[in-house]
Design brief:
The protein has 124 residues and is an all-beta fold. It has no helices and eleven strands.
Length: 124
Amino acid sequence: QVQLVESGGGSVQPGESLRLSCAASGFTLGRYCMAWFRQAPGKPREQVAAMMIGDRFGYISYHDSVKGRFTISHDDADYRLDLQMNSLEPADTAMYYCAAATSVIACNSQFFNVWGQGTQVTVS
């Protein structure tokens, strides 16, 4: 059974950085997509960054609002997905979720079927 556990959230001031980590376990797939999503109060959930794991082409995507500030990465040895967030803005305040698509090899938001419990990021 695939499980995801996020860590690394917190409260920071604008312009500061945070690094989120997602510890994954139970994976038996060779190629799958993992992503970070976020949801602010009263707003729909949005995909922040996604990465196809085990993909020789290295597919990565970012939401326009975080391009140049956030970096997604994956540690193959530890099965850990990270999100380095620099130059944080108040608009980045949200609950951040790690997710995996285990049934379909795609990074489209509707295919993510495994979710972590979330970690709060507050920028003010």
